[in-house]
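Researcher: We plan to redesign the surface later, but first we want a full-length starting point. Tokens attached.
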């Protein structure tokens, strides 16, 4: 038990730049207290002492603001940062080295008792503040869930999910960082599940559509100019359409025909 506690405190010191000492983390971090109480509640739950497990869980909720069902399975070195408002359901499974911020819900969408209703987090998953992960699916190893995301489908390993409903986005390698941030990223940790270089797939799709529209306009204008040079007379309607295209300013360059 004490070995697990030392691991928990060490993980906080490694991932929270505000943590200054072992004693401070041990006495002032509600996430540590919630994990200790959960282990006692989980042991009672596995022994068939369901009421006692729920009561210990309730005491932990009152003292820390973190609600962990005694049936939930917690891995090693899990870091619940700040923690207020965190809710972890009965059939949730949290892997080693996961980080969970305040306001997170690992909830279920099924009402069938005994089924796998809550998510499973792989190793090293980061769930940002206010995120809702709802359903009995897997979030792969090293995945990140951005703050306030609503995740209702599986997240592949190493991916980042943001938005409501959550979308999978790509991340690029960040530029210069301080040494501690670089070590954290190499270990797969990203605070609050976000990086500075995330790119939204919806924005990428809209940009591609705008680029396609501009290219279509360019080709149409080139075609009109070539027809005029070939002696083809354009009627008034065609000229009006050309004028309409010319008035749309989306940053296009005069085509080189």
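Model: Full-length starting sequence:
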């Amino acid at each position: 038990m004490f070995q697990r506690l030392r691991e928990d405190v060490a993980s906080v010191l490694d991932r929270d730049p505000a943590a200054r000492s072992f004693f401070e983390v041990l006495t002032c971090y509600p996430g540590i207290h919630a994990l200790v109480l959960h282990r006692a509640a989980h042991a009672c739950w596995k022994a068939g002492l369901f009421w006692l497990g729920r009561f210990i869980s309730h005491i932990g909720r009152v003292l820390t603001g973190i609600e962990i069902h005694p049936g939930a399975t917690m891995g090693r070195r899990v870091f619940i940062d700040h923690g207020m408002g965190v809710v972890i359901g009965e059939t949730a499974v949290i892997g080693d080295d996961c980080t969970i911020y305040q306001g997170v819900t690992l909830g279920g969408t099924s009402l069938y008792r005994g089924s796998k209703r809550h998510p499973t987090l792989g190793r090293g998953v980061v769930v940002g503040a206010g995120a809702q992960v709802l359903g009995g699916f897997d979030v792969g190893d090293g995945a990140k869930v951005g703050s306030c995301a609503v995740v209702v489908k599986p997240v592949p390993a190493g991916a980042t999910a943001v938005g409501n409903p959550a979308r999978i986005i790509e991340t690029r390698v960040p530029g210069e960082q301080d040494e501690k941030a670089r070590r954290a990223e190499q270990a797969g940790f990203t605070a609050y599940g976000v990086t500075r270089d995330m790119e939204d797939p919806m924005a990428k799709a809209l940009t591609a559509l705008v680029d396609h529209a501009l290219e279509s306009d360019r080709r149409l204008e080139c075609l009109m100019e070539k027809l005029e040079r070939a002696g083809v007379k354009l009627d008034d309607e065609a000229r009006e359409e050309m004028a309409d295209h010319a008035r749309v300013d989306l940053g296009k360059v005069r085509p080189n025909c």
